């Protein structure tokens, strides 16, 4: 299995499917897209880690981001108080020419996420930026939870609102991070939860239907909705790539765990196969 080689590979447009496992992708992709599929090893088991280890220089890219961690705010990941919990001194604005915050302006509050059609809409609205840039990335939030079939996502909603608020407060006080009691309490709580398999699993329960949990169990209930999320995204990608003139690749930043080795969802620096084995599809 090759390393991801995200930036070293030859492409004009790259579609990033957030938290997309290789095995699930390989079972369904050819119903929507034609191309040559490989399994590659990601540099990270979460978006912050992948971004930090991938975008190390300055890159002439128009980046359409459905993921709040890759944003134009300029706040380093290690200063974000909502969801990152890492030591990476990295901000997308320092490494990527132009980042479009689709996670902000393309948000659907009822779904609690950025629907895939918002990425295509933003891409088409900013055609001049695409022409200026050497390459273009479209970072879809799916198949990452929340699951569109349910429309009740909460976790991403809180991350998005927290980062957005922090950006406003940082601008107001000249760029400093949030201050107050939450700065002390939240990292301690997150540190305690990181080592708890039950806490990881409980976080996934928030995205599932209780009836499905009882009937099918956590893994089966979650993976059914996860595959549905992926299919919805692939339908949108199929519509979009027909209009792209150039070399197109579909890949992922990292995968998603459903109980493998006791891990649920995805976490920083957790290099298990479910999280670091990602698809690399070069479209025909």
Question: How do the helices and strands line up, and which of them pair or pack?
Answer:
Layout: E1 2-3, E2 13-18, H1 22-28, E3 35-41, H2 47-54, E4 59-65, E5 96-101, H3 102-105, H4 116-125, H5 127-132, E6 135-143, H6 155-172, H7 181-194, H8 197-205, H9 210-216, H10 218-241, E7 248-252, E8 257-258, E9 264-265, H11 273-276, E10 277-283
Parallel strand pairs: 1-3, 2-6, 2-7, 4-5, 4-6
Antiparallel strand pairs: 3-10, 7-10, 8-9
Helix pairs in contact: 9-10
Structural summary, described in words:
- The chain has a single domain, classed as Alkaline Phosphatase, subunit A (3-Layer(aba) Sandwich), CATH 3.40.720.
- Helices cover 39% and strands 19% of the residues.
- The protein has helices spanning 22-28, 47-54, 102-105, 116-125, 127-132, 155-172, 181-194, 197-205, 210-216, 218-241, 273-276; strands at 2-3, 13-18, 35-41, 59-65, 96-101, 135-143, 248-252, 257-258, 264-265, 277-283.
- The strands form 2 sheets. An 8-stranded mixed β-sheet has the order 1-3-10-7-2-6-4-5. Strands 8-9 form a two-stranded antiparallel sheet.
- Helix 9 (210-216) packs across helix 10 (218-241).
- It starts with a strand and ends with a strand.
């Amino acid at each position: 299995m090759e390393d991801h080689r995200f930036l070293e590979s030859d492409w004009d447009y790259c579609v990033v499917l957030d938290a997309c496992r290789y095995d699930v992708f390989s079972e369904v992709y050819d119903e929507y897209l034609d191309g040559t599929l490989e399994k590659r090893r990601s540099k990270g088991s979460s978006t912050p880690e992948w971004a930090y280890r991938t975008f190390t220089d300055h890159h002439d890219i128009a980046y359409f981001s459905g993921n709040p961690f890759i944003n134009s705010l300029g706040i380093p990941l290690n200063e974000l108080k909502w969801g990152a919990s890492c030591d990476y001194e990295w901000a997308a604005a320092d490494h990527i020419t132009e980042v479009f915050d689709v996670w902000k302006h393309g948000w659907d509050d009822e779904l609690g996420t950025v629907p895939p059609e918002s990425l295509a809409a933003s891409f088409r609205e900013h055609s001049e930026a695409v022409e200026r840039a050497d390459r273009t990335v479209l970072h879809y939030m799916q198949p990452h939870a929340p699951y569109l079939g349910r429309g009740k996502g909460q976790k991403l909603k809180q991350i998005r609102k927290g980062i957005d608020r922090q950006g406003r407060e940082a601008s107001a006080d000249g760029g400093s991070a949030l201050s107050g009691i939450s700065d002390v309490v939240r990292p301690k709580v997150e540190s305690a939860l990181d080592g708890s398999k039950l806490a990881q699993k409980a976080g996934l329960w928030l995205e599932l239907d209780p009836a499905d949990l009882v009937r099918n169990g956590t893994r089966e209930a979650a993976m059914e909705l996860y595959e549905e999320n992926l299919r919805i995204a692939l339908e949108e990608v199929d519509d979009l790539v027909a209009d792209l003139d150039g070399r197109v690749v579909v890949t992922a930043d990292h995968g998603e765990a459903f109980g493998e080795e006791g891990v649920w969802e995805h976490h920083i620096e957790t290099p298990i196969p479910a999280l670091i084995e990602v698809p690399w599809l070069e479209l025909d």
